[in-house]
Structure formats: C-alpha cells, structure tokens
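Let's practice the habit of predicting before peeking. Look at the sequence and jot down your guess about where helices and strands might fall. Then scroll down.
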Amino acid sequence: MHAAGFAIHGVNPLYARRFAQAVGILAKTDRVDAALLARMGAALELRPQQPQSETVVLLRELAMSRRGLMKERTATLNRQKVLSHPLLKRQCAARLRQIERQVKQLDAEVAKVIRADEHLHRRAKILTSIPGISDVTAFTLMVEMPELGTLSPPQIASLAGLAPMTRESGKWKGKSFIQGGRAILRQSMYMSALVATRFNPDMRAFYERLIAAGKPAKVAITAVMRKLMILANALVKADRTWEPSPYRLDPSQHRP
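Done guessing? Here is the structure:
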C-alpha cells in the first residue's frame, strides 16, 4: 500500500473492534468496517506511518528464522533429557549441532546486513554501548521497535508493554500491572535487564534502591526493563552512545 501511494496506520484489530462497539455498531461488513476505520482514524488523529525499508523487512525475516531455531533448540534439549535409545540420542545431538551452526550462520548474516546499512550500523553501535544490551537484543530492538528514537518515554514504555497500568475506583486501589505491548521485545529486554543489574552501574544502583524500598524482585526487574527502553530511545534520538552518570564517576558528587 505504501508503494501504491497510500498513507496507512496499522492498528490492533481488537482496538478497532472495540471502537466499533463503543460507538454502538455491532454489524460487520466490508462497507461498515471501512467507514468505522475512517471514523476511528479521524477521532484518534492517527498519524500515517512511514514505510519500512527493505533492509528492516529482511532483518525481520532473519529474526523470525532465528527465533524458530531457538525454540527448536529448547525443545530438542528437553527431549534429549528423557531419551534412552542410543540411536535417538545420537540423532538428537546431531540436530543440536546443526541448529547451533545455523544460528551462527544467521548471526553472521545479520551482522553483515547491519554493517552494510550506515543508519542501522550507527543505531546498533548506540544500543550495544549500553551495558546489558547485547548484539542480539540490539538486533531485536531494531526489528521489533523501528519507532525507537521517535517517541516520548511514556509512548515507548507503553509500546513495549512495560508501562504500569493503574487500577483505581473511588477509594479502592488495586495493584498496578503491565499488559499488552510487543511480547517478543519484552522477552528480550528481560534478559538484558538481568544482565544490566549486574554490569550496568546506573541500572544496578536503580535496582538496589527499589529492592531496598521493599519492591519485589520481579517488579524491580520490570522497572529496569522500562528504564532500559527509555534510555535506548533517548540515546537513539540524541544520536549518541551511552556514558555512565558523572556522579558515579566522581563519588564526591554522588547525590544522597
């Protein structure tokens, strides 16, 4: 549709259906859907999305293949634990070696594609400068969050499904929770957050403050995930690599 000159904006089909229900229209035909989508776009002031480059489309295809191999690797490892026949054990081990070779080939191809694109290469350099974000996580961010560097902190957290959802009604206050967003991205950021709490001085201090304040470990990790996403978005927007906080380099400037 982009190639044909149309301005488009992708929305969650569930949200479109709920919009129709909210305005009291339950019928569903092509004509009704077209009118409702036009009405939804006008009411919510949805902005046209920019078309994705062929390179990003290619990277997404490579990412899907890599995820498939990693899932198969996990399943094969689990199956290997319960095998008893020597032949099946040998076949399982051979398949694991094949998967490892294919994953390495995919990683090499991804690195090659990114190096060939100046914009993506610069973005990868910025993302991997953040302690805790590996090459694989940076690759996932570029594929699953092409909007990185163009959104506000609340928007980027919401899009990743890391924005806390508050539940309150009158005097009743429920627990906040995260919901929705892009699951693949969130899964990748979870591992990055775990690494960041050990090797990123700023994130480690942030995590320790939350734990000292009585926050559960999972809540603290989720907060680190959100902070990492917001940091990555800010650095990409500013086109600069990560640097540790100045007051951590100079203990005399450490704020209480």
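How did you do? The mean pLDDT is 87.
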